[in-house]
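Table S5 (text form). Sequence records supplied for joint modeling of the two-component complex.
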Amino acid sequence: MTTFRSGWRRADGSAALSGSATRGTFRFQWRLAPYLFVSPFLILFAVFGLYPLVKSIVLSLYATNGPRDHVFVGLSNYRFLFTDPDFGVAVRNTALYTFWTVFLQLPLSLGLAILLSQKWLKGRSWFRLAFFSPQLVGQVFVGVIFMVLYVPQYGLVNHAIHTVHAGFPLDTKWLGDARLVMPALVLASLWMYVGFNMIYFLAALQAVDRQLYEAAMVDGANGWQQFLAVTLPGIKPVAVYVLVMATIGSLQLFELPYTMLQQSAGPDKSGLTIVMYLYQNGFISGDLGYASAVGWTLALGILIVSLVQMRVTGAWGGAKT
Amino acid sequence: MIQEIEALRPRRRGSAGRRPAVIAGRLATLLALTAFSALTLVPLVWLVAAALKRPDDLFHYTFFGPRLSGQNFTDLATKVPEFGRYVLNSLFISSSIVVVQLFFSSLAGFALAKYDFKGKSLVMILMLATILLPGQVTMAPLYELLCRMRFVDSYLGLIVPGAVSVFGIFLFRQAMLPIPDDLLDAARIDGCSEFRTYLNIVMPVSRPMIGAFCLISFLGSWNSFLWPQILLHNSMRFTLPIALNQMVGMYQQSYGMLMAGTLLSILPVMALFLLLQKEFVAGLTTGAVKG
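The corresponding structure-token record, covering 612 residues in total, follows.
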């Protein structure tokens, strides 16, 4: 960087540009350039990020009917929100889904990644391709596919389970039975995300220093002890990242149940999620103020959960990282 | 790297690999991996089969029936004649978003990787904040704002607010950090302006990340549902996810036709992914592992 600040020259030794004025403009554009380069982000962020963010606090204190009709109602949006039994159902469903999907997903992803990171393994990229492929299918499309896979009597899921376990009734209505909607959603989500998270774990595992394993083996550590002492600390930053991102994503569940349950909340609202609640109350009914209140509640919830996760996992690793 | 080092290392004699326990372990690993990857592929293979079967055969044969048929696709074309239009809409919107995001994100990533300037850390903090805050918070006021800008029911409402990807800025910053400053200085000495340096030197060097980002960005806008659903009212402007979601409600029993539509909706991303597979995986994991 200092080369041209202290008078720079062309390769043939002649001064590239003569006159201090030209050099002045050059230095000026060098100083200005980074600001120009980040300005599109800053402008868009200010207009479409920061302004709506502040505005949504204000808006959440109003009852609105469409974009133009506003009445100030103070905190009663929030009061209504916390007493609305539907919102309670939405929170419970979303929390349940997040819990199951994250705690089934991550161990499975890590397990597959460990199997896949064995260095004698041939054809790793083919396996990786297969595991990753569901990630390409958007949630809406996954919803359509699984809706048909879950069809009672004929659906592939029922037939597969029936083949393994003959006592399983073929007319099980995954999407028509309030107790089965959640397992159906979690199963579909496992299909979508196990391979995706596995890619992260695989990259992290391959970055762990092999010498650490050799040292552990010399010390007589068995496989499980090696996993606890070398693997887990080695992949911890990535594991925390995956945990937090998977949780944030799960808390925003919407498209999958909305498509799979044919634009409804399912039997007994068993597929109602927080974002679906926001969409139905804010954009179908047209109360943007209420939508903002739901949005802020969700945002604070997500923030608290992520902070707790980072805190807890930070304490777990001790002094390392 | 690791594999190369492993290859150079002399093999121990009496090779441990031949002990029965090791062989059994490896077989079990292979079996588990094969089983799980087959299980993962089942819904996709089933989808292809379901789309290509005769509608009546759908549930008679688990996967492919005795005959292939284009009946589902003809049904789709007669019942939903606008389907081709939806494909074009999705292609147009997603490609536009990829192009603007690629330009603005790489430009900002370049500034953050290769310049020291006042307020740089503030920009980074702003970027982190946008990642942690869910988009649903700003959805209502953003809709209101776009109403006032007359961007509702217009593709501009999808493209303009999403013209910069924060994730993309991070990716490009990561990819451009290792570019040597000497290379940039050489370009400057040759009389390149800062923008020309970015365009002619930095971007060609970042080719792998460009491939990765194009795919990530395309995938994101191709599959996005909620925001287009809120913003687009006229059915002629619908994208594929919106259209499919509506078709599920309207043609609940025409499973074969729905599968044909779904298959057509995911084929473009599948093709793009197969083309850019290596870059994609590398790009996805860059930020997480190094950062």
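Note: Confidence is low (pLDDT under 50) at residues 1-20, 315-321 of chain A.
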